[in-house]
C-alpha cells in the first residue's frame, strides 16, 4: 500500500512539473512572440520612415530642379570672400572678436549694400579637412520664420487670405481657434502651444495633420508674446490650403527663383549630400567633437520653422528683399507684415531691434544663426555657425550679442576705417 501511494505521489509530482513546463513554454513563447512583433513593428516603422523621407526628398528635389532651371545662377559680390583691406582697423577688430569667440562658420557684414567683410572660419567637415567657405550652407533654424512670414504676406496681397482671418476658418477642429487670427500667429501672440516632434518621419501633409492634432490654444496667452514654432507650421498649412501648393514649391517659386539664390536648400536634400556641412558639439566651439547630422524626422517636422539651409550671402539678400518689400506686389506690405511703426517685440517672423532695425536668431542641431538688419535693409550683420551646442555653449560662446554690437557700430558710423 505504501509503495502504491509513493508511486501515485511521484505521478502527481511529475504532472505538476509537466504543467509548470507547459506554462513556462507558453510564457516563453508569448515573450518571444512579443519580441518578434516588436521587431516587426520597428522594421515597419523604419520602412515607413524611409518611404516618407524618399517621397519628401523627391518632391523637394523636383521643386529645386525647376527653380535652378529658371535662375540665372549669377555669382554676386555676396558669393566672394572680402578681405576688408579698405577698412583695416575694422577688419582687424572683427577678426579679433570672432577669434575670441572661437567662431566656426561664415561672417558677413554689409554697409549701405556694400560688403565690407566676409570671411569663413574653421571646417565644414573636420574629418575630411574640408574648410568652410563664404558660400557654405548652414541650417538657419528659426530665422526661416521670417521667410515664411513673407510667403503669408504674399498670399494676403494676392487675396488668397486676410491677416484678419480666424484660425478656425482653416482648422475648425482646434479648440478656441475662432479666438485668434493669422496676424496674431505671425506675431507669436495667438496663445498657440504644442510641440511638433514626431518620432517618425512625416510627409508634408502629415506634418500639418500632426500640428493640428497637437495644437492647443491657451486663452490666457492670447495677445501676449509666447514663442511657439507650431504657429508657423500651422501658417504653412494655411498656405497649402489657399494656394494648393506645397510649402517647398512656394519657397522656391516666390523666394529662391526671383532672388537667384544659388546657395539655398532644405535639410531633407542637404543631409544626404556628400558635401553637406557637418555640425559639431562639445564644451566650446572649434573642438570638432560630437559630429552631427540632423535627423530625417526632425527636418520633416521643422517645416516652415527651421529646416532651410542658406549661405550668409543668400540670407542677407533674402532678408533685404523681405524688409524692402521687393517681392510683394505692393512694397508697403512689408511695413504691414513687420508692423514697422510699432514697438512690438516680434512681428512677421522677425524681432524688432530697438527703433533701428530687425534681427533673427536660431539655435539647433549644433548650429547658430543670427542676422541684424537696418530698417531700410541695406546694412546688416550675418553670422552662421556649424559649431554651436546650445546646451553647453550658450550664452558664453554665442555670437548673437556680438552681431548686435557690430551692427550698432557700422550702422551709426559715417565711415569705417
UniProtKB/TrEMBL annotation:
> Quick one: where's region Disordered?
48-81
Q: Name the SUPFAM superfamilies on file.
A: beta-lactamase/transpeptidase-like
Where the protein is mainly located, per its record? Answer: membrane
* Cellular compartments annotated: Membrane
Start and end residues of each Beta-lactamase-related domain: 99-391
Spans through the membrane: 14-34
Q: Which stretches does UniProt call biased (Polar residues)?
A: 56-69
GO cellular component, as recorded: membrane
Matching entries from Gene3D superfamilies are given as:
DD-peptidase/beta-lactamase superfamily
The UniProt entry, under InterPro entries, shows: AmpC-like, Beta-lactam-related, Beta-lactam/transpept-like
Against Pfam families, the record matches this protein to: Beta-lactamase
Superkingdom, natural source:
Bacteria
UniProt keyword annotations, A-Z: Membrane, Transmembrane, Transmembrane helix
Could you identify this protein by its name? Answer: Beta-lactamase class C related penicillin binding protein
Phylogenetic lineage: Bacteria, Bacillati, Bacillota, Bacilli, Lactobacillales
